[in-house]
Amino acid sequence: FWPAAVTSEAVSPDTRRLARWFRDTEKLVLSRTLEAPDAAWPNTKIVADSEALRARMAAPGGNLFVAGGIGLAGELARLGLLDELWIHVNPRTLGDGRPLLAGGLELRLLEARPLESGVVVLHYAVENEEVR
User: Fold this and answer.
1) Contact partners, residue 36, CB within 8 Å, separation at least 6
2) pLDDT (tens digit, 0 to 9) for every residue of the chain, 132 residues total?
């Protein structure tokens, strides 16, 4: 979807802008099975474990934006690798669902912004220092 959305007239201008950002941004893909990134995703590097992310975060300019599902977010929270959390709430429900993050993260809402699509973007700061 995302590579084609860069130029698709079938999606909203906001979605095209987001697709261009996805395409142009440096990406690290955390995977134990992939050996090389898909050609449709330039600026992408495969990393095998969370220690590679931790090392990248410790390097100069090491702020990372991590996009993923609840499994990845939960693991990064467990490892103390979250400083902020952006949640995109989509206006539909699927089954019973699962909790986004297990455990006792204390979050402080920084921003709540609705998009034209009906998605609401929630931006939180992770407050509890003992988790980090």
Assistant:
1) 46
2) 989 999 999 999 999 999 999 899 888 888 888 889 888 888 898 888 878 888 888 888 777 777 777 777 778 888 888 888 888 887 666 667 666 666 667 888 999 999 988 889 999 888 865 544
Q: Which amino acid is at 10?
A: A
Q: How far is CA 37 from CA 11, 30, 124, in A?
A: 25, 11, 30
- Cα distance between residue 63 and residue 131, in whole Å: 18
**Dist CA 121 CA 91 (whole Å):** 11
DSSP 62-125: --------HHHHHHHHHTT--SEEEEEE-S---SS---SS-S---EEEEEEEE-TTS-EEEEEE
Quick check: 53 and 30 in contact, CB under 8 A? yes
Amino acid at 21: W
Contact 8, 16 (CB under 8 A): yes
pTM of the model: 0.58
